[in-house]
Specification:
With about 250 residues, the protein is mainly beta. The chain has 3 helices and 14 strands. The chain has one domain: outer membrane lipoprotein receptor (LolB), chain A (Clam).
Length: about 250
């Protein structure tokens, strides 16, 4: 039902008196992911045909070991249908490139429950399915993302290249296959959301084989945070997510 629409090192030798290690470190920190996208928690209202049916949370946090954790979960209750989903992607970000390390997904509710857990060693072209205890070789390594980390990469790309009209991401699925996720610029729009009035750019992803179209709205004034998501499959509305509030985390 749902589509889910992370240091450089240097050696200091013989620094001139006009410079210091502190000033160089500060310059490096200025360009770190923490300063580009500070830790946050964004809360969304989920709707089906205009009616509230649940909530969602998108969250970014930074760990002491230098890794970044990106998390997304949803909780839906509609008539006799229930659906809870959780995705967590642990990544490393180097020069604005998100490198996935560990991905966990769970789904429970009406129908069959699902659980997946993968570890990635992108540099050595390896991916390990921890649930099935199998390891596969991956053909694509440059820019490869998991099913959640590409959202973070996409936001970084929007921040760095706001005029870009087409974005493509090789994404490894929970089965180990790799597909390109392509988003096209689809216009600008001013939205009234539970959060308030925001100006946005709209992107579109179309999966012809599944007759599915996903629209995603990002707000430049909120550092290109995703503020709305809407999906249609075979002409029928699937779901809609609208930003309700933002919390800044430390």
């Amino acid at each position: 039902m749902l589509a889910y629409l992370s240091r450089s090192a240097f050696v200091i030798l013989c620094l001139p008196l006009t410079f210091s290690a502190h000033s160089l470190t500060t310059e490096a920190e200025k360009n770190s992911l923490k300063n580009v996208i500070p830790a946050f928690k964004a809360n969304y209202t989920l709707l089906h045909k205009g009616d509230p049916v649940g909530k969602a949370v998108r969250e970014l946090s930074y760990q002491k070991d230098g890794k970044t954790t990106y998390h997304y979960h949803t909780d839906i209750k509609w008539l006799i249908f229930s659906d809870k989903r959780s995705e967590t992607s642990q990544v490393i970000v180097n020069n604005n490139q998100v490198i996935p390390q560990h991905y966990v997904y769970s789904r429970e509710g009406t129908g069959r429950d699902k659980n997946y857990e993968w570890q990635y060693d992108i540099a050595n072209k390896k991916a390990k399915d921890l649930k099935k205890e199998r390891q596969i070789t991956i053909d694509i390594t440059e820019g490869l993302q998991d099913k959640l980390s590409y959202h973070l990469q996409h936001r970084l790309n929007l921040i760095e290249n706001p005029e870009q009209k087409r974005f493509s991401y090789p994404v490894i699925s929970t089965s180990g296959s790799i597909k390109d996720y392509v988003y096209q610029y689809d216009g600008e729009e001013e939205l009234m959301l539970p959060y308030g009035l925001v100006k946005t750019i709209r992107l579109k992803r179309e999966v012809t084989a599944k007759k599915r179209v996903t629209y995603a709205w990002f707000a430049p004034e909120l550092n290109y945070l995703l503020v709305k998501l809407y999906q249609v499959k075979a002409g029928a509305e699937q779901f809609e997510a609208q930003l309700a509030s933002i919390e800044n985390n430390k």
